[in-house]
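Lab manual, section 2.4: Encoding a predicted structure.

Procedure: take the sequence of the chain (431 residues), apply the prediction step described in section 2.3, and record the output as structure tokens. A sample record is shown.
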Amino acid sequence: MTSAVYPPARLAWFVWGAGAALYLYAFFQRVAPAVMTEQISADFMLSASALGNLSAFYFYSYVAMQIPTGILADLWGPRRLLATGALIAALGSLGFALADHLALAAAGRFLIGGSVAVAFVGMLKLASHWFVPRQYALATGMALFIGIIGAVFAGVPLSLLVEQYGWRPVMAGSAVFPLVIALVIWLWVRDDPAECGYLSHVKSTDTKPAGKAWQQVLPGLKQVFQYRNTWLLSLIPGAVVGSILAFAGLWGVPFLTTLHGFSGTDAAAICSAMLVAWAIGGPVFGGLSDRLGQRNPLYRVGLLLLLLGWSAIALWPRMPGEWLVTLLLLNGFFSGCMIVGFAFAKESVPPQLAGTVSGVVNMGVMTGPMLMQPAVGWMLDRHWQGAVSDGVRLYSATAYQQGFLLMVGWLALASILIFFTTENSNFSLQP
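Recorded output:
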């Protein structure tokens, strides 16, 4: 029997937090390879392009799962979706740690990416049922903060553990975390407060028939792609996220240690600080755009500043360390401009297509690192001069310069494309 009261706040936050824990693990695994490049390269005898491709297997499945995740959330409910995702993430992490062949390691990364891809949608689905409407925005904003905590754990703490115990035992040990998450979600999380005897914050008239979810997908996708902004706002953020995750998520640590003499721990700390700056920049850009009532101007400014920042690093890779660190932190902060794109896209289509266009834009976001991590590695290999240390290839300033110029090129394209977007706040834009 359902009571006449809504669930207490601490119970609602516990339910949401169980889903958020999987999102934390998603960010951890997203950037973990950055502090293990030397060890993984030595174990599998990888070139830079092969290492970039191995890391990108996470993003291949993550991107592919974006739209199916929304459908599965309706068909299965967030409890089953998140518990299944966490269990598969544990198996993928263990498989990656125990892999004795590159193909098996890639399969492990692929499983991890596809499984943790359900975290964001799943926890937002829980938030819509367990929180009062005015707290939904707070829960959404907290998501990136939780994710960045996972990224920070994948920085200095992971670096120290890998140095002490090796990457395989540490990665195998990390599989315990999603296993615990799966157990907690299955035992104590419920899709709706009504299952625990409380009132739900979702009216029955607000829910869509789950069985029709699949049939609604293709018409919705076809319709959102009739709007020019959908195409543009899917291509632009890939340049932003591709740049920061290509650097902070993979190539930053070897760049900082090889060319600038930073220790592995200090390099990991710098990359983590970039991600924290990114987490701060998102709400700042989002809040300012809300206050201005416009999306385009701030997005333009952020892209231009990023283009200048990454251009300086690419063209002067041996700049003084203090200047470099300052620029990297600024690039992290200005990367927060991509948050504006979600509101921009949502306001570019009719309200009934808001969820679909958000999924499409998020696919564009994650396509950035999916393409850029292996692309930078490919360019490093093209300019490799034959230097090797302990079985690991060493790359020159010229090689990194050429790799980072790929990031600059996409940012330059994004800075041009943003001028072709159209502000639209009345949802009446014609295809």
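Check your result against the sample. Residues 426-431 have pLDDT under 50 and may be disordered.
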